[in-house]
């Protein structure tokens, strides 16, 4: 067994033995389904955790369920110093989302499609996954998963969020120094 920086365990097997029945563990968690969530973080605050109802998230859903009820309110509270950071998920880059952000005068941080993912929210998702995995009784149904996610989101220390956001400049500098190669964050 090997360990890696991605927090995954790598296992070396003999050639051709990958799909051997002894090497396969079947897991059917949450009825074979998962949930899509969205959360907004900033210094001093965070949004409620939004759990999408079933289905995929398109530009219209993103506008109606995220940009209008959450991002617009954050922009109003922050004023002109608000800079919105998301990633390049297809629903984030639709014409509808672009037009809505422009009409609300919400400035979006430039984020290259193939740039290293230095977004602090990715570390928040990792923290939530670890907290779920560490539960004595892990969730086994979709409803239990939703409740556990909301509990862990609410219990997450705001100081963790602050530290992640404030470390972004240092992480970006490190990434530039190694010319986009792997960084230990």
TrEMBL record:
GO terms for molecular function: nucleic acid binding. Residues 82-135 form the Tc1-like transposase DDE domain. It holds the Pfam family DDE_3. This is Transposable element Tc3 transposase. The gene is tc3a. It comes from Trichonephila clavipes.
